[in-house]
Amino acid sequence: MAYKYVYLFSEGDGSMKELLGGKGANLAEMTRLGMPVPQGFTVSTEACTRYYDDGKKIGADIEEQIYTALAKIEEINGKKFGDPNNPLLVSVRSGARASMPGMMDTILNLGINDEVAAGLIAGNADPKFERFVFDSYRRFIQMFSDVVMEIPKKSFEEIIDEVKEKKGVENDIDLDVSDMKELVGLFKLYYKEKKGEDFPADPTLQMMEAVKAVFRSWDNPRANVYRRMNDIPYSWGTAVNVQPMVFGNLNEDSGTGVAFTRDPATGERALFGEYLINAQGEDVVAGIRTPCKIAQLQQDMPAVYEQFVGIANTLENHYKDMQDMEFTIENKKLYMLQTRNGKRTAAAALKIAVDLVDEGMITQTEAVLRVDPKQLDALLHPQFDVKALKEANVIGTGLAASPGAACGRVVFSAEDAKAWADKGEKVILARLETSPEDIEGMVAAEGILTVRGGMTSHAAVVARGMGTCCVCGCGEINMHAEEGWFELGGNRYKQGDYISLDGSTGKIYGEAVPTVEATISGNFDIFMKWADDVRTLKVRTNADNPRDTAEAVGFGAEGIGLCRTEHMFFETDRIMAIREMIVSKTVAEREKALAKILPLQQGDFEEMYRVLKGRPMTIRFLDPPLHEFVPTKDDEIAALANEMDLSAAELRDVITGLHETNPMMGHRGCRLAVTFPEIAAMQTTAVINAAIKVNSENPEFNIVPEIMIPLVGEVKELKFVKDIVTSTADKLIAEAGADLKYIVGTMIEIPRAAITADEIAQEAEFFSFGTNDLTQMTFGFSRDDAGKFLDAYYDAKIFESDPFEKLDQNGVGKLVETAVTLGRKTRPNIKLGICGEHGGDPSTVEFCHNVGLDYVSCSPFRVPIARLAAAQAAIASL
Question: Which range among 385-394, 411-420, 580-589 has the greatest average pLDDT?
């Protein structure tokens, strides 16, 4: 028996989403429930996969099954495809197993041609019916040309506009039958002009070309981007649904609409939707005519409204979730064309989940699975006013590096950002790329825009940590920062001009778009408690200052998994001392400079320990290469030279000597402590003294410092640095007469460390996986430069996602698993966590749960995301 690729709606059910796609499975389920669904068939997702495997061809056996199914729906509907006397017209729609609204293609009214149009009209002499036939015909030509033949839809819209202008009317509905006939003729002429052949009249040819086009749309640019954003594998493919047409544009007793069983913006329990009389589905979303609210249908067609309300309630009770439904009314008869779990805002998602539990429809555990963790981002950041956003002009798009909405005057330096902000101005800091020296300007700015850099670039990581909106890597920008302007979207934007950034989409607007503050409802706390009750994985945060620490604790962080001490060094009151230390020629000079930093760094740790109130904090010792700290401006070089009693030329020689060909793999991390042990001694002193002091003030905190040595690749270098730490710490503890315990561990970020983790665990009491660098070193990619070529990798289907955003579980993940196994073999009670930016990615959080890590750590605003993802991972593993 031949392998089955095509299923009638009556042959499937709602459990077959992987095979029939979401739309096909739900049409089959509504059929099973006895709802008024025009009976058609689904070409499976496996047929799509085979289409690509066969070199973008539909196999003869699949074609045969399509024609067999078509014959069956002809029999069911009492009409014949392509028959002028009793024609069957169909819609051809996509339907992936995961909802991808608007990403793929649809064709309506397929099967019409001149003979079919004439046959339809012959059975009904009403001029309004004749207009309907030619309206359907011109819509089909337009859709088929756009979707199948790739002639832009806009070209046909321009032809319609010309006819309306000549007629002196504003709306399509005001065009009469002669106008519709004219449009059909003009569309055909335009098609022939573009393609050099007549518009295809054979309905069977139309059918197969349409099915191929829907399969092709699985690989169109917008679908590819959507899949990457939503972790939908390319291998899933899309199904195709072929369904007899029902006509909302037949007459004034017909219409079409979209409705939700609850408000998708607020979650309120009330039918929400819109419809249009005498229209097809595309008209509702196109915005050409103003739709009516769904409640108006009760006055227009009471019986239809009553039936629809009953179906809506049945569907929500059946699926136990808010439903998004498409329907058409033909001659006052209701038809259901789709239902699916509706897309909703984050606030609505929480309200609906909590309400469904209160209504006894689902359990708390089921509710936890109903909310996409990534959605929680939107609750924690300012958002644009929805109405204003619709009217705003997008001038460019970069990477959505840190969510939220920002509006302000553009400035081009950190100094200007701080100065303008101090005067009360809201600013957007626009840079070619940011560096650690820009931190004050980044803190002052409402949003950050960069030309270069990826999702784990300096700008992205710091912005996420601060909860600041950031769009980075917009290579379309022609930046002239020194001259105070940049060019984008054909326009020049000068210092002081307003721009707006959407850090959730990466869109850049060349104007001031009003924002509204985010609000966290009581549903958030209720819902997150349910999540915390089921998760076993702890969630910490990456934070370097008391402000970020307090914010993260407010979001539910259970400690700090990564405190980057170098970020503390860029403050204006200590950068000069760090520079003195770097250019010092003797140990004594270095110790003198470090002595200036010691009380400041200790003070930072004290404040953070107080905010944490006994929660753990992993403190990473100095990591970046020293060249990042040295001055680059003439006045700063002169000031430092004067302080160090050097000539400017001598200092420039020192700075030049710090240059490295590949600094990310150079003199950094534990290598700095091996070369300059006094750095590790100073940092240990700051950590231990801070812990002793805060513990003495608050004995209930029982602080146990976690000191992390970065970039270790060999156990002997870890032991070398650890010996400095333990000798310094033990001496301080003894002198203070304190009862303080501490642990020393390392960051696993070099592949060699992962595969020799059994040796490293002899010295390390904990591992923290630094997956940013581990990914970089495993792939051999620079995380700041990979964005320049990754698009080509996506297009070639080599990668489906950015490995710096979503952990590569097959490669980097195997190194993590190896290190976990080897580390526990040597030290069974070793503490294991992850502190790269991956710690806030839901799929990576699930991986961390499954391999047995103790915690994940992420930027403060991603803590709720990680908490929910950890809960969902725990439920999935039950």
Answer: 411-420
